[in-house]
Structures are given as structure tokens and as C-alpha cells.
């Protein structure tokens, strides 16, 4: 029996960060359950208006849906609730404004360099996090923020090459195994962040509680975990999506070239096999939702694929996943009634694994 150690981001005290998972994988149910167990529950902030079937101006409806999700999560928990935003979103400004107005505890910026983010903060209580995959990016963001806005990030989240979703590394480096390891990037960012008196959180391949212990040995304050939270009862995705994680063997977890222009890690399925064979899915680009997406050249619409997947239609989509997703099995993730384990059970397990020093890294 054991509890996870806590750490602070400004005045927020948490035991871990549950990584934001778009589209709709980490919504009100998952984030409130994590927040109720002492973690920071992070809503995936991408295209929620589309997921909820809102019509009308996309930027307005996505921001409204994000507000709905934040308010609903707040009703279910008094704990720490945040939002993950991708800087490459074309409606990023509307979403950042909405999240700050809703006074979320934390906004975590991923997918691109959030060089202008502090302009949305307006001195409110919301803390700022940045996801980086190199010391260079951490320094660049910090220097820009400090020079123009006289602030620096409240927390650095170092995401390594084993993470799920879109990745901040070159595709070739990931395939060839030449991307820097999480440990080496983390150690360099920790040294830098110590000088700024800021915590560092590490992400990507953290699966067992003992991995948290290992990360703390590198000087990190704590971890961000996403994949392990997919196969839980409260995860907001359809069971078909969660079952993809149970089905996956190590060989099924693959790298893709996302239409976003970044590599991504996902579970191979017939949809991705068709893409790999060069097939094209017809789609209407409703709005250029990702500034880096070239919809004319894309074989499919990534947002459509992710919305289909989270709704359980894996024929027309796929599930993102970190390298450790194959560790999720029926035995480890289903309880005696055949239901997915609750977040409460998972958090208790993580505490026990922490005490035992059980590791995957
Ligand atoms: C299904 C899924 C969706 C994700 N969506 C996002 C996202 O929208 N924005 C983001 O910055 N990271 C996203 N990620 C990355 C996670 O937030 C997290 O940093 C990473 O997966 C950590 O590695 P782990 O999955 O091995 O724990 C996603 C990951 C998964 C598995």
C-alpha cells in the first residue's frame, strides 16, 4: 500500500498530470475522476464543437464546447482541472481565451511553439505549462515570454520519444532510434529549470508507479501520463477505442506521418493499413483546423478520423497510443465483472507500484 508523492506547480499541489487526449478521449469524466484522486485532470481541447455535433462558426462552437466541458468537469470535482491546447490549431486564440475566462487551473500548450501564449493570461490565476521535446525549445519559449511578457512558464513538461499522439521529433530519428532519450532531455531541462525555480514534469512511456520514482531520480518533480488512463472506466472514449488498447501487441504500435506535418504514434488497424497503401478518403475540409495541415494533399482528415475513433467507429479512424499501450491487457484492465477498472483503482495501483519500485522504463 502506498501513495504517490505530490509536487507543486505554483500553488497547485498534485500527484501527477493526466495528459490531455484529443479529440474527446480526456473529457469531463476522466479529468474529474483524476482530479478527485489528487491528480491534474487535463481536458483535450481540440475540436470539441465538432465532437458534440454543434453547427455554426467552428471557432465559436469549439470554444463553447470547451467551456461546457470545463464547467461539467468542475461540477464533478473540486480538484485541479486544466486544458491542453495545440498551438497549431487555427482556433487556438479562441480556445485559450475561453479557458482563461473559465479560470481553469492550468493550460498546457503542446503541438507547436506557444510563443505568444502569455498575452491570454491577463494576470489571472491560471498556471501555464509548455510541452517541450528539447532544451532548445524550453529556452526559446522562456526567453520569448520573459522578453515580451515578463513571465516564464510555471511548469516544463518534457515529452520524450515514447509518447502517444503527435510527437515533437523528426520521423527519421524516431524510426532510426536516434531521437534523444527522455532521460537525457529531462536531465538537461531540469538543470535549466532549477535555475528558474520551476518544476519539470516528464512524459512519454511512464506506465508503472516505479517509473515515477525513476523520473524523480533524474530531478523531475513528477510525471504526465496518458496511455495508462485510456483503459479506465471513466475515460471518455467509446469502449471500442479502449479495446484497441487492450488488443494491441507491441508490434501493432506504430509511427505514422500525420497530415498535421508531425509524426504520431498510434495503433495499427485496417484504416491505417489502407492509408499506408496510399488509399485516399474523400473529405470536405470544413475549416483549416490545423494551420500546418495541407488538406489538398492529405489522404484523410485527421480530425474526422479522431472523432470517428473516439465514438467507436474504428473503421474510419484509429487510436493514438504511447509505446506502452501493449501492456494494457484484459487481465490488468478489467475487473472481475468484466468492466474497465476505475481511475480510483488505477491510482491506488500506481501508489503500490511506486512503493514496490515496479518499472517499465
Ligand atoms: C489518445 C491520445 C491522445 C493524445 N492527444 C494529445 C493532444 O491532444 N495534445 C497533446 O499535447 N498531447 C496529446 N497526447 C499526448 C499525451 O498527452 C501525453 O503527453 C503522452 O501520451 C504521454 O505518454 P504516455 O501516453 O506514454 O503516458 C495524446 C496521447 C494519446 C495516447
Number of domains: 2
Helix content: 25-40%
CATH T-level fold name of the largest domain: TIM Barrel
Task: Report the sheet-strand fraction.
Answer: 15-25%
Q: Sum up the overall morphology in one term.
A: globular
- Please write the CATH class name of the largest domain: Alpha Beta
CATH superfamily of the largest domain: Aldolase class I
From the helix content, strand content and strand pairing, which structural class follows? alpha/beta
Low-confidence stretches: none
- How many helices? 15
User: Major beta sheet, specifics?
Assistant: 8 strands, parallel, barrel
**Ions and ligands:** flavin mononucleotide
Placed side by side, the strands forming the largest sheet appear as 3-4-5-6-7-8-10-11
Intertermini distance? 22 Å
Backbone CA Rg? 19 Å
Mean pLDDT: 96
Give the beta-strand count: 13
CATH architecture of the largest domain: Alpha-Beta Barrel
Structure report:
This protein has 361 residues and is an alpha/beta fold. It folds into two domains: 7-236 and 333-355, TIM Barrel, CATH 3.20.20.70; 242-325, no CATH class. It contains 15 helices and 13 strands. The chain has helices spanning 28-36, 48-51, 58-76, 92-101, 118-121, 135-149, 171-176, 182-196, 209-217, 227-230, 239-247, 270-276, 302-310, 330-333, 343-356; strands at 7-9, 12-14, 17-18, 40-44, 80-86, 106-110, 127-132, 155-159, 165-166, 200-203, 222-225, 253-257, 263-267. Strands 3-4-5-6-7-8-10-11 form an eight-stranded parallel beta barrel, surrounded by six helices. A hairpin with a 5-residue loop joins strand 12 and strand 13 (263-267). Helix 3 packs parallel to helix 4 (92-101) and helix 9 (209-217) crosses helix 15 (343-356). The mean pLDDT is 96. Flavin mononucleotide binds at residues 19-22, 25, 44, 46, 84, 86, 110-111, 131, 159, 162-165, 203-206, 224-227, 320-322, 324.
Amino acid at each position: 500500500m502506498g501513495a504517490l508523492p505530490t509536487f507543486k506547480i505554483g500553488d497547485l499541489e498534485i500527484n501527477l498530470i493526466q495528459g490531455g487526449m484529443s479529440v474527446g478521449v480526456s473529457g469531463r469524466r476522466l479529468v474529474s475522476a483524476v482530479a478527485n484522486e489528487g491528480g491534474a485532470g487535463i481536458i483535450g481541447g481540440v475540436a470539441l464543437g465538432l465532437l458534440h455535433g454543434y453547427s455554426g462558426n467552428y471557432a465559436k462552437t469549439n470554444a463553447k464546447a470547451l467551456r461546457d466541458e470545463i464547467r461539467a468537469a468542475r461540477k464533478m470535482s473540486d480538484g485541479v482541472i486544466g486544458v491542453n491546447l495545440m498551438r497549431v490549431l487555427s482556433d487556438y486564440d479562441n480556445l485559450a481565451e475561453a479557458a482563461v475566462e473559465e479560470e481553469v487551473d492550468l493550460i498546457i500548450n503542446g503541438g507547436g511553439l506557444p510563443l505568444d501564449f502569455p498575452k491570454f493570461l491577463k494576470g489571472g490565476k491560471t498556471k501555464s505549462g509548455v510541452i517541450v521535446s528539447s532544451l532548445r525549445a524550453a529556452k526559446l519559449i522562456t526567453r520569448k515570454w520573459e522578453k515580451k511578457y515578463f513571465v516564464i512558464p510555471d511548469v516544463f513538461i518534457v515529452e520524450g520519444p515514447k509518447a502517444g499522439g503527435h510527437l515533437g521529433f523528426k520521423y527519421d530519428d524516431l524510426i532510426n532510434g536516434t531521437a534523444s532519450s527522455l532521460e537525457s532531455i529531462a536531465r538537461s531541462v531540469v538543470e535549466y529549470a532549477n535555475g528558474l525555480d520551476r518544476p519539470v514534469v516528464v512524459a512519454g512511456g511512464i506506465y508503472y508507479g516505479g517509473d515515477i520514482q525513476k523520473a524523480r531520480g533524474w530531478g523531475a518533480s513528477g510525471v504526465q501520463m496518458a496511455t495508462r488512463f485510456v483503459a479506465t472506466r471513466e475515460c471518455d472514449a467509446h469502449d471500442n477505442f479502449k479495446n484497441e488498447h487492450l488488443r494491441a501487441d507491441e508490434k501493432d504500435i506504430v509511427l505514422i506521418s500525420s497530415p498535421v506535418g508531425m509524426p504520431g504514434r498510434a495503433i495499427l488497424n485496417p484504416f491505417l493499413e489502407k492509408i499506408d497503401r496510399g488509399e485516399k478518403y474523400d473529405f470536405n475540409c470544413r475549416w483549416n483546423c490545423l494551420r500546418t495541415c495541407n488538406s489538398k494533399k492529405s489522404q484523410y482528415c485527421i480530425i474526422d478520423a479522431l472523432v470517428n475513433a473516439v465514438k467507436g467507429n474504428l473503421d474510419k479512424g484509429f487510436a493514438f497510443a504511447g509505446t506502452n499501450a501493449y501492456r494494457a491487457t484484459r487481465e490488468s484492465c478489467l475487473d472481475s465483472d468484466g468492466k474497465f477498472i476505475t481511475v480510483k483503482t488505477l491510482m491506488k495501483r500506481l501508489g503500490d507500484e511506486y512503493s514496490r519500485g515496479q518499472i517499465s522504463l
